[in-house]
Amino acid sequence: MRKRRSWLIGFGLGLAIGAILLQLMTAAESAGKSALPNEPLSKEDLQKEAAAQGLTLVDPEADGRTYTQEELDAAVAKAKEAAASGQTAAGSEAERANARTLYVWQDATLAEVSDALMSLGLINDKQAFIQQAKPYSTKIRVGPCTFEGKPSYDEIIEELTRNKY
Predict the structure, then answer these.
(1) From the centroid of its chain, how far is CA 162?
(2) Which residues contact 71 (CB under 8 A, 6 or more apart)?
(3) How many angstroms separate the Cα of 72 from the Cα of each of 63, 64, 76, 85?
(4) How do residues 51-60 score in pLDDT, each as one tens digit?
(5) Considering its fold, how many domains does the chain have in total?
(6) 32, HSE (Cβ side, Cα atoms, 13 Å)
(7) Angstrom distance (rounded) from CA 155 to CA 142
């Protein structure tokens, strides 16, 4: 008996858990029959149920345009491109021309960040910026950095080391 004690305990627990699961399945089956009718709901009943849940039904033919997944993906890609170039949907043309955004990625080196800053036109001398920012190179934070106008090196370093999240 002692030799097979763990086997007997496992067998007993398996039987008990199986009986409990069988009871749960039986209870769920009987509750499911009363909760879901077999016939489809009419449009009025569906609208009442939606209103009770705080939802509204949208009829694509009556309410205007709906989008396919491909059209939605294209719109999202276009919005990402606009965000990457520093443009926003709202705002004046002057704000869009002066505001530039740089996303600092994880494990970005100071040289890579300075290359990105140079391509945005925020710095003119890469080596001078690296020399001034070298003490802060381990404190650069991942995330979006937004720059207005022509910031100084100190303002750029402050934005790069700011806690973004």
Answers:
(1) 21
(2) none
(3) 18, 16, 6, 20
(4) 888 887 777 6
(5) 2
(6) 6
(7) 17
Nearest to 157 by CA among 55, 147, 67: 147
Asked if residue 82 is part of any domain, the answer here is no
| pTM (two decimals) | 0.43
- Tell me the residue range of the domain where 100 lies: 92-161
DSSP letter at 136 equals G
Judge whether 83 lies within some domain. no
Q: Which of 48, 63, 78 is the last residue of a domain?
A: 63
Handedness of CA 5, 7, 9, 12 (dihedral sign): negative
- Is 102 in the same domain as 58? no
Q: How confident is the model over 125-164, as pLDDT tens digits? A: 999 999 999 999 899 999 899 998 889 999 999 999 998 8
